[in-house]
Give the backbone structure.
Amino acid sequence: MFWTGELIAKTAPVRRRAVPAYAPHVDRGMAAYLGLAIGDALGATVEFLTPNEIRHQIGLHCDITGGGWLRLKAGKVTDDTTMSLALGESIIAKGRVDALAAAEAFDAWMRAKPVDIGNTVRRNLIAFRQTGNPEAPASEHDAGNGAAMRVLPVALACYGQPEKTTIFANRAQAHVTHHNALSDAACETLIFMVQDFLAGRDPVDVERQRAGKLVSDFPVFAYDKRLRENPSGFVVDTMQAVLQSFFATETFEDCLIDVVNRGGDADTTGAIAGMLAGARYGMDSIPKRWSNALDASIRAQCPAQALELLAPQVS
């Protein structure tokens, strides 16, 4: 009997777990979330470095190695990913994008002592604690990229809904920390670009309709005049770098390598570019060396949350 069992063990075919087949928009939504986290982890290593400093210290930065000014372990992410996950959890729990639920989720996230937090986010969350009002006052000085970096849960939850509904939903969460017209314009452009790519739209049409409208409405966002290197946390700098890189490359990998090697606020440009590239190219486009290097918990949470947020559209 032992011999027979041993023979069967050696000769029986291995049963592999079947990989679920997802609808194209679901695959792209999962890839967008994984891409956000990968771009965040990749860019964090070179955040605040200039392109010349990156070249001299690393060469071409193309692997998830950790380090950087935050001294992260390889595969760890920053506030770009963790705030997105916090927002997504609040949307799932509430059943919609809700300003108070988002503010409470962000406040709980801040109380948990995240590895990094932007000054505008901190200031307006402290104000929320004091007043209970989830909407920060409008300010021309709050045009940072802290709301734009976390829009993916809104894009997924509002997929298939009217644009006016989506705009309202975005501003409910964005104005908790960033109540600014430039921030709103960037957030909504990114949301609609993600949704367009989930629907399989052609990148040329997306650039013309979405990025073109952004530049038409707010000419300060024009991104084709000069290469945007060393982008700051100003949402205009961020969008210029991301849009230049995204539309000038043809693969997920090329896009992320290009944008993070521009330095500056590289975790955020990497996260936003990764979100767009994932939505455009899908799961199969993501290099295994990057997904395998990502923190295991984050690697599991991001696509799982994407599935939940897209659940009303999943059949």
